[in-house]
Specification:
By secondary structure, this protein is mainly alpha-helical. 68% of the residues lie in helices and 0% in strands. Among the domains are: 71 residues, no CATH class; 103 residues, Serine Threonine Protein Phosphatase 5, Tetratricopeptide repeat (Alpha Horseshoe). The N terminus and C terminus are likely disordered. Helix 10 packs antiparallel against helix 11, helix 11 runs antiparallel to helix 12 and helix 13 crosses helix 14.
Length: 343
C-alpha cells in the first residue's frame, strides 16, 4: 500500500512538472508511461511504460530521456547491460540533465561503463550546480598528475556550498597546512571525526582552549585515534591554566597505542617507565617502546636499547614473549576516555 501511494505521489509530481499544453504528443506519451510505471493499483508495467517513453523521446521530451535512463540502470527493471544504459544516460545528459551526466561519469569512473571521459560529464553536471559532481571534479584535480590545487579548491568549494560535507572536509584538509584560518570555515561544515580533529588543532594554535577541547572530544567520541593522542598530550600540560590530569592522559594514550599510532605507543611507554598515573612497569614500558620504534617513531629505538640494557634474563624472556605475541597487559584498550574527568 505504501509503495502504491509513493508511486502515485511521484507520478503526480512528475506530471505536474511537465508543460501544460494538452495537445502536446510528447507530453501525452510521457503521461501514459508514468501512469503505467506508477500505478496506484496493480503492478507496474515497465515494458509498456518504456514504449511510451521512447515515443515521447522521439517527439522531443527531455523528461522521457531521463525516465528511460532511470529504468535501464543496474538493478532497474529494464536493465539490459551497460551499453544500453550508457547510451540512454548519454542521451539524457546531452538533453541537459545534470543527474544523468553525473551517473554517466560515475559509471565511467568505476569502469562499469567505458568509451567516454568521465571528467567531461562531471564538469557538465558540476557547472549545472550538481554538488556531488563538483566534489568528484575537485577530487580529480587533487589526484591529477600534476594536480591543480586552485581548480580543486574552486570545485570543492562549490560542492561544499551545495551541502557536500565530504567536499568541505577535502577543502579544509587542502587549506589546512598553509591557510588554517581559511580551512576553519570548511572544517566546521565537514561534520566528520577527522574534520573535528583538524579543527581542534587550529583552535589550539589560536589558543582557543575551550573550542579545541570541544572539537577534539567530539572527534574522540567518534573513535578517531589521533584525537585521543591530542587529548592525552593536553591532559599532561597546563598551557591553558588547566590542572594536568595524568590518569586521563593514560586512558587516551592506551586508545591511541592500541590504534597503532607510533606516538601513542611512545607516550604510553613513558607513562609506564616513569610510573605516572600507573605503577612503574619497565617491561610493559619497553614493550610499548618497541611498538613505537617498529612503527617508525625514531626516539623510541635508542630509548628501548637503554631500558633493556640492565634487564635480567627473565625480564628479557618475558619481554620477548610479549613482543612475539603482540600482547601486553595494556594491549586491550579501555572504553573511550572523556576529557574533563578522571577515569
Amino acid at each position: 500500500m505504501r509503495r502504491c501511494c509513493l508511486n502515485l505521489a511521484l507520478g503526480l509530481f512528475l506530471a505536474a512538472a511537465l508543460p501544460a499544453q494538452a495537445d502536446d504528443p510528447a507530453r501525452a506519451e510521457l503521461l501514459a508511461g508514468l501512469a503505467l510505471e506508477y500505478r496506484p493499483v496493480g503492478d507496474p508495467d515497465y515494458q509498456a511504460a518504456a514504449g511510451h517513453y521512447q515515443a515521447a523521446a522521439a517527439a522531443g521530451s527531455r523528461e522521457a530521456l531521463l525516465a528511460l535512463a532511470r529504468l535501464s540502470g543496474p538493478g532497474a527493471p529494464l536493465w539490459q547491460g551497460p551499453e544500453l544504459w550508457r547510451d540512454r544516460l548519454l542521451a539524457a545528459a546531452r538533453a541537459g540533465w545534470p543527474e544523468a551526466a553525473f551517473q554517466l561519469a560515475e559509471g565511467l569512473a568505476d569502469q562499469t561503463l567505458t568509451g567516454l571521459d568521465p571528467a567531461a560529464f562531471y564538469f557538465q553536471a558540476a557547472t549545472a550546480g550538481h554538488g556531488p559532481a563538483a566534489r568528484r571534479l575537485g577530487e580529480l584535480y587533487l589526484a591529477g598528475q600534476p594536480k591543480d590545487e586552485s581548480q580543486a579548491a574552486f570545485w570543492l568549494a562549490l560542492a561544499a556550498e551545495n551541502h557536500e560535507p565530504e567536499a568541505a572536509l577535502a577543502l579544509g584538509k587542502l587549506l589546512y597546512p598553509s591557510r588554517p584560518e581559511a580551512a576553519r570555515r570548511w572544517l566546521e561544515q565537514a561534520r566528520s571525526a577527522e574534520g573535528s580533529y583538524l579543527l581542534g588543532q587550529i583552535y589550539l594554535k589560536e589558543r582557543r582552549y575551550i573550542e579545541a577541547l570541544s572539537a577534539l572530544t567530539l572527534a574522540a567520541d567518534q573513535h578517531y585515534p589521533p584525537a585521543h593522542l591530542a587529548l592525552g598530550l593536553l591532559s599532561l600540560n597546563n598551557d591553558f591554566g588547566r590542572r594536568p590530569n595524568p590518569r586521563e592522559a593514560l586512558q587516551h594514550f592506551k586508545i591511541a597505542a592500541k590504534a597503532d599510532l607510533p606516538e601513542g605507543a611512545y607516550q604510553l611507554a613513558r607513562m609506564y617507565l616513569t610510573g605516572l598515573a600507573t605503577p612503574k612497569d619497565p617491561i610493559t614500558g619497553a614493550f610499548w617502546l618497541h611498538q613505537a620504534a617498529s612503527r617508525g617513531y625514531e626516539a623510541a629505538g635508542p630509548e628501548y636499547d637503554q631500558v633493556i640494557y640492565n634487564f635480567t634474563v627473565g625480564q628479557k624472556k618475558r619481554l620477548e614473549r610479549m613482543i612475539e605475541e603482540g600482547l601486553a597487559p595494556t594491549t586491550k584498550a579501555p572504553g573511550p576516555a572523556r576529557a574533563g574527568g578522571d577515569l
